[in-house]
Amino acid sequence: MRVFVTGGTGLLGNTVLRQLEAAGHETVALVRDVPDLRLFDGLSTHFLRGDLSDVDAIQRGVAESDAVIHSAGLIHLGWTRLRESMQVNRDGTAAIAQACRRYDRKLVHVGTVDTLAIGSRAHPANEATPITAENRQVPCSYVQSKRAGVGEVLAQVEQGLRATIVHPGFMLGPWDWKPSSGRMLIEVGRSWRPLAPPGGCSLCDSRDVAAGTIAAIERGGDQGRQFILAGENVTYFQLWTEIAKRMKSRAPLMPTGPAGLWIAGKLGDAFSLVSGKESGDLNSAIVEMSRMFHWYDSSRAKTELDYTTRHLGETLDDATMWIQSHHMSRQRIPA
């Protein structure tokens, strides 16, 4: 099988390429520029130059493949860059979905749990949990644009597209070249952070999510069936404590209280106002998201996709080792 993959330089996309080739499949990756070949070390991936605004490249990639995994996206957790986020996460997804429908190719679209209802400590959310005023996500640019992208896929399904949508939780693991979510490991490891965010996440291993995503090609159905690919539900305090152990740094003392959160959000927004550029690391949207429990139930994926998850300790061990050897032992980081 020949699979066209977008987002091949990202954590999930790069892992998907490696697992596809390990299973004997041929891969094609959409790349904007000539890539740093270290990102594709050991792979026989064919490169197709273009981006999500290049309709001709997308059409070619889809037409010459048997299936498509769309994992590319723009992640900005803040109030700004909405137009740019929509161009990538909504319009780019629409172009992919339209091409897949035109050439009758199965599409696996990578969404995010951030488009779904928020869970709680008592009741993790699943695909069917209704979104209410109490459990809705923070409507930042990322959430709005990714939700719009899912809408584009479902609109094409109504017109005959064969598609499955997967929603990963918070991923960590090897092959985080940029890094993306692995930045949390670096930040907790390099400087002491006495106060952890008060909320929580569903931590999953990017290798498990990649396997679930690939399984969705054959086993995920064709009618826009949606699957949560999450993992172990933990508080950020627990997660940062475990990260600190592995990074040989000081663990946080406690979760941040409401007053600390309010101050942090205001400071981040004030910096954005003064500098003219919103910080992607600290703003009121991120602060609000950090107090919520993004806890999810992957039972549907475990039943229908044979999705399996490894223990949090193994994920943190492997992700820490990879980040330390690729991002903390030298100056230059591949982009």
From TrEMBL:
Protein name: dTDP-glucose 4,6-dehydratase
Keyword Lipoprotein among UniProt keywords: no
Keyword Lyase: yes
Record-level Gene Ontology MF annotations: aldehyde dehydrogenase (NAD+) activity; dTDP-glucose 4,6-dehydratase activity
A family per Pfam: Epimerase
InterPro entries: Epimerase_deHydtase, NAD(P)-bd_dom_sf, NAD(P)-dependent_oxidoreduct
EC main group: lyase
EC number assigned by the record: 4.2.1.46
TM region positions: none
Domain NAD-dependent epimerase/dehydratase: 3-225
Signal peptide (UniProt feature, chain positions): none
Organism: Novipirellula galeiformis
UniProtKB keywords: Lyase
A GO CC term attached to the entry: cytoplasm
